[in-house]
Amino acid sequence: MFEKEPDKTTKEVLMARIAGEIILSESPGNVMRKWRQLFELNQSELAKYMNISPSVLSDYENNRRKSPGASFIRKFVKALIEADLQRGGVHFRRYSMLHRDLSVAILDMGEFNVPRTIKEISEALEGVLFVGKDWDNELVYGYTIVDSLAAIKNLEALDFLYLFGKNPTRVIVFTKVSRGRSPMVAVRLYPIKPKMIVIHGPRIPEEVDSFAIELAELEGVSFCLSLLKTLDELMDRLRKLI
């Protein structure tokens, strides 16, 4: 059980965020499945909280039924949060963190309608995968592109915690990197790790810091160098994966 009843406003903001993403998506079933998986619930568990059969939920997630109505989406979102709070509220706390303005350092971000594998992302970015080849089929749900120089200049320690913890099952791309050590040192310092780190800046793999690779191995974080020539091309490749 959640130790303390969560703030009503915080709960409503998170519910609105999830519901809005479902409503605005061209494939609402995919978004529903994504959030269920992010909350680490199987279909039977969530269906029980919704008082429906698992087959009904499966039909919606696989887009076999027409888009869910407002009442069904409300029931889905409330069940997600209630089920998580019954288990201690780990995911509720993670995804309801108060919004912090990190726009000075974040260049772009997006959520994949369909989860992408580490391998897909690496290939799309013409990447050299230093760490993570053994788990390149693991799923990533979104991306954040960070201006590493602006981040170092302007972000505080708690900002990095928010950046990494907002959704750890995503790829964070650090641009304007010289050798890649600073991003991995930052990852090392915080308890919540992103699924994948991509750096952009070094022109050849030999320019990447060997200690950065070692840190990625120690932390169990996929570590990749994108060889795309421009930042615009990198952004375009990631947006096409949405």
Describe this structure in words.
The chain contains 12 helices and 6 strands. It has 242 residues and is of the alpha/beta class. Helices cover 49% and strands 17% of the residues. The chain has 2 domains: 8-95, lambda repressor-like DNA-binding domains (434 Repressor (Amino-terminal Domain)); 106-239, HprK N-terminal domain-like (Udp-n-acetylmuramoylalanyl-d-glutamate--2,6- Diaminopimelate Ligase, Chain: A, domain 1, 3-Layer(aba) Sandwich), CATH 3.40.1390.20. It starts with 7 loop residues before the first helix and ends with a helix. Strands 1-3-4-5-6-2 form a 6-stranded mixed beta sheet, with helices on both faces.
Chain-wise SSE layout:
Layout: H1 8-24, H2 28-38, H3 43-50, H4 54-61, H5 70-86, H6 90-95, E1 106-117, H7 118-124, E2 127-131, E3 139-147, H8 148-154, H9 157-165, E4 171-175, H10 181-189, E5 196-200, H11 210-219, E6 222-226, H12 231-239
Parallel strand pairs: 3-4, 4-5, 5-6
Antiparallel strand pairs: 1-3, 2-6
Helix pairs in contact: 1-2, 1-5, 3-4, 3-5, 10-11
User: Might you state the CATH topology name of the largest domain?
Assistant: Udp-n-acetylmuramoylalanyl-d-glutamate--2,6- Diaminopimelate Ligase, Chain: A, domain 1
Distance between the termini: 35 Å
Along the chain, the helix and strand elements come as HHHHHHEHEEHHEHEHEH
Tally of discrete structural domains? 2
Largest sheet descriptor? 6 strands, mixed
DSSP, total strands? 6
- Would you identify the regions where 5 or more consecutive residues have pLDDT less than 50? none
Q: So what's the CATH class of the largest domain?
A: Alpha Beta
Number of helices: 12
Residues in β-strands, percent: 15-25%
Per CATH, the superfamily of the largest domain is: HprK N-terminal domain-like
Radius of gyration: 19 Å
Main structural class: alpha/beta
Shape: globular
Bin the helical content: 40-55%
Adjacency order of strands in the biggest sheet: 1-3-4-5-6-2
Q: Which CATH architecture of the largest domain would you pick? A: 3-Layer(aba) Sandwich
Quote the average pLDDT. Answer: 88
